[in-house]
Amino acid sequence: MFLAKLCGFFSEATKGMSELYFLPAQKLESLLARMIEDNLIYIPVVEQERAHFKRFRPGESFEWALDRIRPVEPLKGFFMKFKEVVAKPGGSLEKKSSRSVILGPKACDLRAMEVYDKVFLAGEFVDPFYKERRENTILISVDCPQPEPTCFCNLVGIQPHPLKGFDLNLTPMNSGFLAETGSEKGAELVRHARILFQPPSPEQIKERDTQRAQAVKTVEATNPKALEDNLSRKVLDADMEFWERESTTCVECCACLHICPTCYCFLLYDQKDDGGSERVRVWDACYYAAYARVGGGANPRADFSRRFRNRFLCKYSYFPGYHGFFACSGCGRCISGCTAKIDIREVLWGL
Amino acid sequence: MGAMNPYQPVTAKITKIIDETPTIKTFILEPKPLGFEAGQFMELTVFGVGEAPFTPSSSPYDKEKMEFTIMKVGRVTKALFELKEGASIGVRGPYGRPYPLNKFKNREVLIVGGGVGFAPLRSLFLALLHDAREYKRICVRYGARTPHDHVYKRYIDEWNAHEKVDILRSSDMGDPSWKERVGVVTVLLDEIPVDVKESPAVVCGPPIMMKFTTQKLLEAGFPGSNIYLSMESNMSCGLGMCNHCRIGELYSCKDGPVLTWDQIKHVEEPFV
Question: Entry's InterPro entries (chain A) (predicted)?
Answer without folding.
Answer: 4Fe4S_Fe-S-bd (IPR017896)
